[in-house]
Amino acid sequence: MKRTLIPLLAFVLSFIFIINACQKDEAYIKPTKSITSINAKILRIVDNKKGGLNIFVSVTDQNGVAIENLSNSNFNISMINNNGEETPIPMTDSTSLPSLIITALTMDYSGSMFDDSTSVPAMETALTSFVNMKNSYDQIEIIKFSDSLQVTVPFTNNTTTLLNGITDTTFYGHGYTAFYKAVIKGLDDVQNLAINNPTYLPSIIGFTDGVNNLPPLTMDSLLNNSILNQIPVYTVGYGVNPDTIKLKTIADSTGGAYAWNPSSSSLSILYQIVNGQLSNSVVIPIMGPNNKGKVTYRVKVRYFCEDGLFNATDEKYFYY
Fold first, then answer.
1. Burial of residue 287, with CB atoms counted within 10 A of its CB: 0-12 exposed, 13-18 middle, 19 or more buried
2. Which of 56, 215, 248, 249 has a beta carbon 3.0–4.6 Å from 43's, enabling a disulfide?
3. Which of the four CATH numbers 3.40.50.300, 3.10.180.10, 3.40.50.720, 3.40.50.410 does domain 100-279 have?
4. What is the pTM of this model?
5. CA distance linking residue 308 with residue 101, whole number of Å
6. ∠ CA 268-272-277 to the nearest 5 degrees?
């Protein structure tokens, strides 16, 4: 399953010039020649309690900006067997948006984040922008980490509580980097809320400026947790020394995306675009497989607007 490293400069340009390009609202003044390609990502596949499955799909333009107002006609779903052969799978109802976004945000307070006076404020400002964009019912948790973890704000939809938690100074940090442990804690917590709600979209946004150097020292348990529970992990590498290869592997393996932001400028825009990808993802209900076991689904997206006809494909496996 191929992923693309999201260029931050493209994020900035897209935010200024082409947000919501080619959307179908008749009152919208369409931009000229904005979209050059699209990308599809399967974020999550879960039982929908009706004998079928829900597939969550994010569709973005070449800059990572979410494409809105998609419907059944934009998607074709198929199941892939061991020989690579496709079997078309019908949709059982109309597409919809997730009924609730559940996001655990990790915040890095390791020693290197205090090497200058801008890194911690930039991180806090970026997360503030994410919280301010949330739907009034969406649930967010704030996890701060260094040598240890602190769930500064357990899951809540209260914006004021979340904003106060972001700037809360009770967690000292200044030590090593327990990044994997923080993400695993977030995975466990979002799963507890999402487990019986097949239209909820749980996710993790993991922020770090360095390399995980405390147990667990490998990402195996993190990946197993995410893949088993179908929870995408978005990773944000900050500054000049993040573990780019491992952060990208986590995102690629779980249905998320990786972004590297080398400085404090425009970090908030990055978080705003991730928010748009989550809140504008599409829930596609389909028939379930006939047999238990590992099943691979392929989603093909076809999108037409004034810039032309665009296609994208993604696939993801699921244990039924």
1. middle
2. 56
3. 3.40.50.410
4. 0.87
5. 31
6. 145
